[in-house]
Amino acid sequence: MPDDTLSLAIKEAYASAPSNLVIHHTLEIWHPNFNTPIRVVRDHVDLTAKLESSAPRNAGQYVTFVGYAFDVVPPEVTHTAVPQCVIEIDNVSRDILANVEASMNGQPGSSELITVTYRAFLSSDLMAPQNNPPLTLTVMSITATVFRVRATCGFPNLANRRFPGLDYTAEVFPGLIAQ
């Protein structure tokens, strides 16, 4: 199924796979208890790239994504459950582990859930992510050790969202009122 959030440039990169073009997969992990967002790139070197203008933190600014080994296991194709994916980050630093523990230990603000935002950048264009809007998931469960952080992410409120999302009121749709 086509993904309308992807730019034409990244669609072309996926289709032709040129050897001189690298797709940088990044994650931004956030919780109110974190001092700063955790930003990682699936690479062995750090990446500095510009966030989209609608980003909730550091909108339109250049930020650094730290090089880490991580993997994203896509959701299973099923008709019976809400899709969930698994994110695993290996060899986590003390900062990441401390932030994850702070979000789990009932400190102020920890009633909110951790969010993970996925962005894809092309090595030829670090001025904006190539998937706009970026995919934002909610962490439903998380385990953390000094070796690995493993999080199950998904869309927990997807089933409770209203459809359609509009309120058909007389103020918005005056044609509903009989004259």
Describe the structure.
With 179 residues, the protein is mainly beta. The chain has one domain. 11% of the residues lie in helices and 34% in strands. The protein contains 2 helices and 9 strands. It has helices at residues 8-16, 94-104; strands at 23-30, 38-42, 47-50, 62-68, 70-73, 84-90, 115-122, 135-144, 148-154. A 9-stranded mixed β-sheet has the order 3-4-2-1-7-8-9-6-5. A hairpin with a 7-residue loop joins strand 1 and strand 2 (38-42). The longest helix is centred in the middle third of the chain and has 11 residues, at 94-104. The N and C termini lie far apart (45 Å). The relative contact order is 0.20.
Secondary-structure blueprint:
Blueprint (H helix, E strand, L loop, with lengths): L7 H9 L6 E8 L7 E5 L4 E4 L11 E7 L1 E4 L10 E7 L3 H11 L10 E8 L12 E10 L3 E7 L25
Parallel strand pairs: 2-4
Antiparallel strand pairs: 1-2, 1-7, 3-4, 5-6, 6-9, 7-8, 8-9
Helix content: 10-25%
> What radius of gyration results from the CA coordinates?
19 Å
Secondary structure: number of strands: 9
Uncertain spans, ≥5 residues at pLDDT below 50? none
Structural class, by secondary structure, is: mainly beta
N-to-C SSE string, H for helix and E for strand: HEEEEEEHEEE
The average pLDDT score comes to 83
Shape descriptor: globular
What proportion of the residues form beta strands (DSSP E)? 25-35%
| Main sheet properties | 9 strands, mixed
What number of domains?
Answer: 1
